[in-house]
Design goal:
Largest interface: A-B, 41 and 32 residues
Number of strands of chain B: 10
Strand order of the largest sheet of chain B: 7-6-5-8-9-4-10
Strand content of chain B: 15-25%
Oligomer: heterodimer
Order of helices and strands of chain A: HHHHHEEHEH
Largest sheet of chain A: 3 strands, mixed
Number of helices of chain A: 7
Distance between the termini of chain A: 48 Å
Helix content of chain B: 25-40%
Structural class of chain B: alpha+beta
Distance between the termini of chain B: 85 Å
Helix content of chain A: 55-70%
Radius of gyration of chain A: 22 Å
Chain lengths: ~180, ~230
């Protein structure tokens, strides 16, 4: 899954700093957000202009677009401004492609069902029990990173298995009964 | 396929991603600031209370929490919360000669004690807002001597709103209410927008009638004071 850890750390740090300004009152918080908004809008306008210049020069061919879309940092910033060259479905497919080797190692596969409304992905193959939960979370995280503009992500299991009662739960029931 | 709750209205927000905060801020527009507490910046509703700054006499709009910090009228503080007390004085007596001494050119005035100057001050409404009238000390003492209940007035935050008898019809005697000082400034603001000519004109007089009816409805008779 191609998400640079620094990117997430920066995102979390921005959020923590903004939340911290709330300690100085509602006005401080709003001013901090306005500051971020002004800077973000400025760079967003710059990115848009940059893409326009490339397009006008005829340099925005499919190779360049693929390189842009494949770069996590650039793609994330373009997504902030709604400038990503690929549509939602293409980006979700890209996310699924990146995670397929991990899924295949556990005998599972993922298939995009729809991007109409929420993104729905069906997880097929040999998935069950606790292993399925980890796979579902991995798919969700991967799709959310490349499609943060989706209103929701849902992963369905193609063959839902009856869930087994974990041993720990059994133990606690036994200890409750014995006391 | 099971149904999935999709918030159509929140569609642009998305699920997040690493730069979720930036996405949210970039997608949102600057909020239209509503009215705010002038002390802490909390947003407040149109109906809110006020605090008087004793140094520059300014009224500050406040949230409930900040208002409650300054309700002690004896505290040695720079601010005073404006209370919500309305009193009527059914037996209020004022001789036309005493009113003339107040040198109020229009039939309406409000008086309050300025504790910083340690004297009574009188204001009357006009086209440019509240105008101050030089209040002769003896004039005020004469009025209080005739109406001991006026001593109930709290300095800085409460005012006596006095209306002279109407020239033709209407009420026949001087009318006096004890009101929060912010109510007087509200009246001044109302009148400034509608004041025409020297005496205010018909629209202003209609507003004054309505304002006094509202004050009357909120007032209870002032308690007796020991003389």
């Amino acid at each position: 899954m191609g998400e640079t850890p620094e990117l997430r750390a920066v995102g979390e740090r921005i959020e923590a700093l903004l939340d911290g300004t709330a300690a100085y009152g509602a006005i401080a918080r709003e001013r901090a957000e306005e500051l971020v908004r002004l800077v973000t809008d400025l760079y967003g306008a710059g990115l848009e202009r940059l893409l326009e210049i490339l397009h006008e020069a005829g340099r925005l061919d499919s190779d360049v677009l693929a390189a842009i879309a494949g770069d996590d940092l650039v793609a994330s910033l373009l997504l902030v401004h709604g400038l990503h060259p690929e549509d939602l479905a293409t980006r979700v497919e890209r996310a699924l492609d990146s995670i397929r080797p991990t899924l295949a190692a556990q005998g599972a596969d993922a298939e995009l069902v729809t991007v109409d409304g929420a993104v729905v992905v069906r997880l097929g193959g040999a998935v069950s029990g606790c292993g399925a939960t980890a796979l579902v979370q991995a798919v969700e995280a991967s799709v959310e990173a490349t499609a943060p503009d989706a209103p929701g992500v849902r992963v369905e299991l193609a063959n839902p298995q009856p869930s087994l009662i974990p041993v720990s739960a059994l133990r606690s029931r036994l200890s409750e009964a014995s006391t | 396929m099971t149904s999935w709750p999709v918030g159509e209205a929140e569609a642009p927000a998305g699920v997040g991603g690493p730069l979720a905060t930036l996405r949210r801020i970039a997608a949102s527009r600057a909020p239209q600031p509503g009215e705010r507490c002038e002390m802490c910046g909390e947003t407040i509703t149109e109906r809110h209370q006020h605090v008087v700054n004793l140094q520059n006499r300014a009224l500050m709009c406040t949230c409930r929490a900040c208002y409650l910090l300054f309700t002690d009228q004896q505290a040695a503080l720079r601010y005073r919360a404006v209370p919500d007390r309305y009193l009527s004085f059914p037996r209020f007596r004022l001789e036309p000669s005493s009113w003339n001494e107040l040198q109020i050119p229009v039939g309406l005035a409000f008086l309050f004690r300025n504790s910083t100057l340690d004297r009574m001050v009188a204001f009357y409404p006009g086209p440019a807002g509240a105008a101050e009238s030089e209040l002769p000390l003896t004039a005020w003492e004469t009025i209080v001597a005739a109406n001991p209940q006026l001593e109930l007035l709290t300095p800085d935050v409460e005012a006596l709103l006095i209306r002279a008898p109407a020239k033709r019809g209407g009420h026949e005697r001087f009318d006096c209410h004890l009101v929060p000082v912010d109510a007087c400034y509200e009246l001044v603001g109302l009148l400034r927008r509608s004041w025409r000519g020297f005496d205010g004109g018909q629209e202003a007089h209609g507003l004054i009638e309505k304002f006094f009816a509202a004050v009357d409805a909120r007032s209870r008779p002032a308690p007796e004071v020991a003389t």
